[in-house]
């Protein structure tokens, strides 16, 4: 492809090709809005080409330098551009490909990311289209690798503005999930449910709160919806979460509705000794403490252990925090229960982490499933006969959930599965499979009375040591 490709496309009268502007030696700050677009395209490149997780790069204190250099407003715009791009990436790439006579050269990856982030602004964000086009052209002109494509960028994006409605309509026929994971979803859930799950990731996750007590009262006070999990779901609001009533007093914490399920599966934990083996940030630990358990929170990461302790200070809750490797943890006496919310691919959290499906692959899922099995075998050794192990994770892939438990049950008779009863979970009956295991998905829990629907994809089950 060359810079004359766009001349072969049909263009309405009056939209002739625009000459690229002369390269500018001025700093990026000289053109308002340019630095945030540069940051977005560079961070997208790290996600797509290097499989770098987005959260770390968008960390306010230790993130990517181009992100840290932005002011608060520009950081918010950068996050919005990246989230929109990643949520709709297959549709954006298909739209761009349809406008090109042939693919961009191998060495034009940087240009691809400029085009992709600009397209996301035009198609899916409330950003002035002329600004998205102009700043993308400026990006191309300032990059020696892309300067020769500046006219192409201009013509292609202007055409996208003109044909936006048709492009959006055509995009509805393209799954927003990458093909490798969509194939796994179809195999696990069937084509209809797989499509519902894929479409659900286009909507950002709502804010769910777990409260210490009086959930109905807090739902009324915060203008929230009470969910079947006992979670308070907030309506959309402007402002920061710490500004809400009850935050400073430690009356609640943010926790997705699905994530609140595993700790509840222990039933009555009053006075029981339970270890949360992968405890940070501490939501499940807090649930157990509030319910009266004597909890040991095990966390391998020093930073995450520190964060857990800080969260507990705000919540005014007490738990023993042990900073150690899970496999090195050995209680003096065998425990009544263990909660293992194991590390996983996090494919159930794409509504809030849309980069997951672009930074993970099948090999990651397989490796994590092996790790989970090893962790679960160790967890069994920590509980006394009759003690419970609740195993959970936020993956949608059965390889990391159902298959781990199935294989372990076939391998040893030291444990038995304790089925979850649908009658005990009114409103979530469809989330319990025939084996009595929880299997939630983002397509569950429909929207109601103006409140957003959905919940993270989670697997959870109860095992008892014989």
* Overall 3D form: globular
Q: What structural class do the secondary elements suggest?
A: alpha/beta
Largest sheet: 8 strands, mixed
Helical content band: 40-55%
Instruction: State the total count of DSSP E strands.
Output: 12
Supply the number of helical segments: 18
Write up this protein.
The structure is a single chain. By secondary structure, the chain is an alpha/beta fold. The termini are far apart. Strands 5, 6, 7, 8, 9, 10, 11 and 12 form an 8-stranded mixed sheet that branches. Strands 2-3-1-4 form a 4-stranded antiparallel sheet, covered by helices on one side. It is globular and about 70 Å long. The protein has helices spanning 34-50, 54-57, 65-68, 72-87, 89-99, 109-124, 129-142, 150-162, 164-171, 179-189, 191-200, 215-221, 261-264, 283-290, 302-315, 356-359, 362-380, 402-411, and strands at 208-211, 224-226, 232-234, 252-254, 273-276, 294-299, 320-323, 335-341, 383-393, 415-417, 438-440, 458-465. Helix content is 41%, strand content 13%. The longest helix is centred in the last third of the chain and has 19 residues, at 362-380. It has 18 helices and 12 strands.
């Amino acid at each position: 492809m060359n810079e004359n490709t766009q001349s072969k496309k049909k263009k309405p009268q009056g939209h002739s090709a625009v000459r690229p502007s002369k390269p500018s030696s001025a700093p990026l700050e000289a053109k308002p809005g340019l630095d945030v677009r540069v940051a977005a395209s560079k961070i997208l490149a790290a996600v797509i080409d290097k499989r770098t997780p987005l959260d770390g790069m968008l960390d306010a204190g230790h993130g990517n330098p181009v992100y840290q250099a932005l002011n608060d407003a520009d950081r918010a715009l950068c996050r919005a551009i990246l989230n929109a791009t990643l949520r709709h990436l297959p549709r954006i790439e298909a739209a761009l490909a349809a406008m090109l006579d042939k693919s961009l050269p191998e060495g034009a990856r940087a240009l691809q990311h400029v085009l992709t982030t600009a397209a996301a602004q035009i198609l899916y964000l409330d950003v002035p289209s002329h600004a998205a086009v102009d700043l993308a052209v400026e990006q191309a002109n300032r990059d020696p690798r892309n300067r020769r494509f500046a006219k192409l960028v201009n013509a292609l994006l202007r055409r996208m503005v003109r044909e936006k409605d048709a492009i959006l309509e055509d995009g509805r026929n393209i799954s927003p999930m990458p093909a490798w994971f969509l194939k796994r979803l179809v195999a696990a859930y069937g084509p209809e449910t797989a499509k519902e799950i894929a479409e659900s990731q286009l909507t950002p996750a709502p804010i769910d709160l777990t409260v210490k007590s009086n959930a109905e009262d807090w739902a009324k006070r915060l203008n929230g919806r009470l969910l079947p999990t006992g979670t308070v779901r907030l309506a959309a609001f402007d402002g920061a979460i710490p500004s809400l009533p009850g935050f400073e007093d430690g009356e609640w914490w943010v926790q997705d509705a699905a994530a609140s399920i595993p700790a509840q599966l222990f039933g009555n934990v009053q006075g029981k000794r339970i270890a949360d083996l992968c405890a940070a940030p501490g939501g499940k630990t807090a649930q157990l403490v509030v319910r009266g358990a004597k909890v040991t929170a095990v966390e391998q990461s020093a930073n995450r252990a520190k964060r857990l302790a800080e969260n507990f200070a705000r919540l005014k809750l007490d738990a023993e925090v042990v900073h150690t490797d899970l496999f090195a943890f050995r209680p003096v006496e065998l425990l009544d229960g263990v909660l293992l919310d194991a590390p996983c691919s996090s494919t159930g959290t794409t509504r809030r982490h849309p980069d997951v499906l672009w930074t993970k692959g099948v090999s990651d899922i397989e490796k994590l499933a092996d790790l989970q099995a090893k962790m679960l075998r160790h967890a069994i050794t920590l509980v006394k006969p009759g003690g419970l192990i609740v195993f959970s994770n936020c993956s949608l892939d059965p390889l990391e959930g159902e298959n781990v438990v199935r294989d372990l049950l076939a391998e040893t008779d030291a444990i038995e599965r304790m089925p979850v009863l649908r009658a005990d979970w009114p409103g979530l009956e469809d989330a319990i499979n025939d084996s009595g295991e929880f299997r939630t998905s983002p397509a569950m829990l429909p929207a109601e009375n103006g409140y957003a629907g959905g919940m993270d994809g989670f697997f959870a089950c109860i095992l008892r040591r014989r």
